[in-house]
């Protein structure tokens, strides 16, 4: 069982930065992948960034490479998503999610556990 509580969203102007946090409650990080997804109005949920907890290996959607960074703080059991140079079209609900496996999956349906979501609104 994994419990996820995400936070850190807000309203920001285009070009600005935000940091999202996800507090992870889990018995073991073995074979655990943690990811951030977003869902913009009228669009399907899409994967943004992923981290495999045991190795620290990360992967990113092409649209955010070089601007977003995912990291884990094992002392505080938190996964962070640092977002820079945010664009208007990146407005949406952002979700932390987790699944167990030997590598990180990209499809939302592969994820078993989800946070409640945190809203990010980027304005002109």
Structural features, described:
This protein is an all-beta fold and 124 residues long. Helices cover 0% and strands 53% of the residues. It has no helices and eleven strands. The strands form two sheets. Strands 2, 4, 5, 6, 9, 10 and 11 form a seven-stranded mixed sheet that branches. The chain has a four-stranded antiparallel sheet with strand order 1-3-8-7, with no helix packed on it. β7 and β8 form a beta hairpin. The termini are far apart. The model has no long low-confidence stretch (mean pLDDT 96).
Question: What are its keywords?
Answer:
0% helix; 124 residues; single chain; 4-stranded antiparallel beta sheet; 7-stranded mixed beta sheet; mainly beta; 11 strands
């Amino acid at each position: 069982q994994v419990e996820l509580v995400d936070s850190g969203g807000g309203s920001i102007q285009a070009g600005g930065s935000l940091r999202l946090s996800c507090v992870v409650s889990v018995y073991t990080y073995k074979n655990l992948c943690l990811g951030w997804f977003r869902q913009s109005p009228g669009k399907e949920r899409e994967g943004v960034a992923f981290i495999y907890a045991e190795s620290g290996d990360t992967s990113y959607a092409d649209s955010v490479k070089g601007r977003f960074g995912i990291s884990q703080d094992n002392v505080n059991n938190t996964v962070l998503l640092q977002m820079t140079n945010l664009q208007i079209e990146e407005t949406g609900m952002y979700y932390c999610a987790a699944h167990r496996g030997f590598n990180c999956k990209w499809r939302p349906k592969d994820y078993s556990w989800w946070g409640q979501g945190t809203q990010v609104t980027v304005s002109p």
